[in-house]
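Task 17 of the worksheet. Students: predict the tertiary structure of the chain below and write it out as structure tokens. Keep your answer in the requested format; marks are given for formatting as well as content.
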Amino acid sequence: MSHVETEFLLVAGILAFYLFDSARLLHFDDLVIAPVRGAWRIVPGGTLEVRGRFLHLPNPLWPAGTRFIAGWLHPAAAIEDADAVRNFARRLWPVRAGCMLVAGLVLVAIPLLLLVHRDPAWLLAALAAASLVTLAMLALLFARRKALRLDTRRLLALSAESLLCPPCAPNMYRKLCAWRGWRGDPVAFAAHHLPSAARPALRAGIEARIALFALVDDDEDGRVGAVHAARGRIRSELA
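Model answer:
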């Protein structure tokens, strides 16, 4: 294998690790919820079905995006506080900025250095810069772990993953969003926060998932009744 082919494989591996680490397989009842320029985007996540799950790949060019996953099948008693979600994103703005910076170094600068410049000194400098930014983000999280309710053991695992595998570091904020989770019923939240013109599209997307579920589920776990109850609730709340 030639030197050029090896460099192309390294670049392909970097990008593949990043995309694989950011992807998620969603259940049929999962919704992706994200604040977008003062409004909210709530959609069924993923279009490619993989063994009964749906592959969701967030925007690879924007690792600083706030995104949560929530299921509509079993309604929660509470409705998520929109201000709490926005405050979570604001409090973690240094981590979001760091993820963008690390993404630029690991996913753009290092591949270009491997393919074009090929100077080991510059490559080491880019790796060192990415590691320093990653360490700064982790130090901030450890300092604020009690306020953010972050588990120390999880943070240690995240630290090892981000430092030992640099393509995983840009996904740090996405993992923090997943750890926080969505704290409430996404359908009730959509009914309160989506404009009336956007609700039919969400309702149609959920109906499409329910129709697909009806084709493939044999009701071994008794979910059909819960799905029918959820359908009635969704039609009523998103009318």
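Marker's comment: The longest helix spans residues 93-117. The CA atoms of residues 192 and 237 lie 9 Å apart.
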